Amino acid sequence: MPDGAARSGKTAAGEAWGEVLFEHRRLGAWLRVAAVDPRTGEEAVATGPAEAPAMVERLAAAKLARRLRRD
């Protein structure tokens, strides 16, 4: 997925998260994914194996959803 791509959907728990912007940055064998809520500017970052970008995206989105629920 290209950097800055926007996506909407649901978390693994089935919660709707609305629009989320994802930034992918590969660091050797690792992938750093930042998930950003465009409405609030809140950001959550997850790092994982570069071979599993969807998993790292889901983790970043779940962290962002938790952060948004907390606020």
Which key phrases capture this entry?
71 residues, alpha+beta, four-stranded antiparallel β-sheet, 4 strands, elongated
Structure characterization notes:
This protein is an alpha+beta fold and 71 residues long. It has one domain (5-70). It contains 1 helix and 4 strands, in the order ββββα. Strand 2 (16-27) and strand 3 form a beta hairpin. It is elongated and about 35 Å long. The mean pLDDT is 84.
Topology:
Blueprint: E1 5-10, E2 16-27, E3 30-36, E4 43-49, H1 53-70
Antiparallel strand pairs: 1-2, 2-3, 3-4
How much strand? over 45%
Note poorly predicted spans: none
Radius of gyration based on Cα positions: 11 Å
According to DSSP, the number of beta strands is 4
Characterize this entry briefly.
With 71 residues, the protein is of the alpha+beta class.
